[in-house]
Design a protein that fits this description.
Glutathione S-transferase Yfyf (Class Pi), Chain A, domain 2; glutathione transferase activity; two-stranded antiparallel sheet; GST_omega; single chain
Length: 435
């Protein structure tokens, strides 16, 4: 976009990536503010949604290597991908910010009205014979969430000497062409040449790249990595929601090392949890299945009706996934001083969670159990998560309240079972049954 006029709905954008020692720009109050890094695909997700909905906003670009003190003072995590500031509070994580914008500004919609289609979109469903993902004929949230990486494919072709075979990816390439015509894509696009120049500079470890000052947007490998779970706790999320809502269901437990062929035939990815619907369709991923159950079965609601509160709840879930869970798994496979350091890091991250809890009985300022509580509980049930009570009194009180919840009582495993299973897993001989 270096030669294009700035879109009218972008009220202000810093001309360079601001760093430590540089003053904070004077921003308009009561206006959406996105703290961004132009080359981050996660941040681009939020920019795409802002442009799709043509929401007035201002953008502050931040140097990820030398973050300004004033930015760190605003952000508990220091995270950029993405950091959306609203009047009086802040959201982080690209999917959380995008879902919030959809909830708070539903026009033009990026999710269909049908709960099952919404779940498919969150899972980035197969493209099929429709124009866009999620069995839709107009651009949806899934399309915008996937696009930043697809925009970078030509760069990979140019730099690594390959290209997608048209005969094998005709539908995907057709989708790419349709996406390139979308206004939001045009207004956030960056040329292949600039992408390539940034990657070369990044790989050469040049942290102060001159081209960052140009009006261009792209991706950075410094953004948050994808976390792959080691212990089978994510499926417990879905079971908790099923029990909270008292939905009739049947459970088939699987050996994750030797998965049955009939299960692999039903599941595109072979991952658990997998929720088989009465019509034969399969939903995967713990957050997708849990949110689908909430939208399809409104009784015993786990999300408040207020969009701001829903976003706060999703922010808690994201914080758990990006900060606490990685710190939790660092405890495994280390000993001595490394284990002490890993434990201290876990406690520090839990203190941040405790700050998010505040004086409320449950997360997101609620007096009753909500989706955020159920989505983070499985890790607190594990005995390794018990930490110094003197530093985490509020969090320990929350754990006590959670232990009295019907859904928790009906899905929990004993500490002994957790310990025995973890030992078998660390010995590379997972024992799934007999507890």
């Amino acid at each position: 976009m270096s030669n294009q006029q700035q879109p009218a709905n972008i009220i202000f954008e810093s001309s360079k990536h601001l760093e430590s020692g540089e003053p904070e720009p004077q921003l308009k109050p009561n206006l959406l503010t996105l703290y961004s890094m132009r080359f981050c695909p996660f941040a681009q997700r939020t920019r795409l949604v802002l442009q799709h909905k043509q929401l007035p906003h201002q953008i502050v670009n931040v140097n990820l290597v030398r973050k300004p003190d004033w930015f760190l003072a605003k952000s508990s995590s220091g995270q950029i991908s993405s950091h959306l500031r609203l009047p009086g509070w802040t959201l982080i994580e690209s999917l959380v910010t995008c879902d919030y914008l959809e909830d708070a500004h539903p026009e033009p919609p990026l999710y269909p009205g049908d709960a099952r289609k919404r779940a498919a979109i969150r899972l980035a469903a197969q493209l099929g014979d429709t124009n866009f993902f999620g069995d839709c004929d107009q651009v949806q949230m899934a399309d915008l969430m996937i696009w930043p990486w697809m925009e970078r494919l030509p760069v990979a072709a140019k730099m690594l000497g390959f290209q997608l075979p048209a005969d094998r990816f005709d539908k995907l390439l057709g989708w790419t062409s349709r996406m390139e015509q979308q206004r939001a894509v045009k207004e956030t696009h960056i040329s292949d040449d600039v992408h390539a120049a940034f990657f070369k500079a990044y790989w050469a470890k040049e942290t102060n790249v001159p081209l960052l000052a140009s009006r261009s947007r792209s991706s950075s490998p410094t953004c948050s990595p994808v976390l792959h779970a080691v212990l089978p706790v994510r499926q417990q999320r879905t079971r908790l929601v099923l029990q909270h809502k008292q939905l009739p269901h049947q459970i088939v437990n699987l050996n994750l090392v030797r998965k049955p062929d009939w299960f692999l035939a039903k599941s595109a990815s072979g991952k658990v949890p997998a929720l088989l619907e009465p019509d034969g369709s399969v939903l995967e991923d713990s957050l997708v299945t849990s949110r689908h159950l909430e939208e399809a079965q409104r009784e015993s609601a786990l999300y408040p009706s207020n969009a701001d509160k829903r976003a706060q709840m999703d922010g808690v879930i994201a914080q758990m996934g990006e900060k606490v869970i990685p710190a939790f798994y660092k405890l495994f496979g280390v000993s001595g001083d490394e284990k002490k350091a890993a434990f201290e890091q876990l406690v520090t991250e839990l203190e941040s969670m405790q700050s998010a809890l505040g004086d409320s009985k449950f997360f997101a300022g609620s007096e009753s159990v909500q989706m955020a509580d159920l989505m983070i509980w499985p890790w607190f049930e594990r005995p390794e998560a018990f930490v110094p009570e003197e530093r985490l009194k509020s969090l320990m009180s929350w754990m006590g309240r959670m232990e009295q919840q019907r859904a928790v009582l009906e899905t929990r495993n004993t500490d002994e079972a957790h310990v025995e299973f973890t030992r078998s897993l660390l010995a590379n001989q997972p024992k799934y049954d007999g507890y």
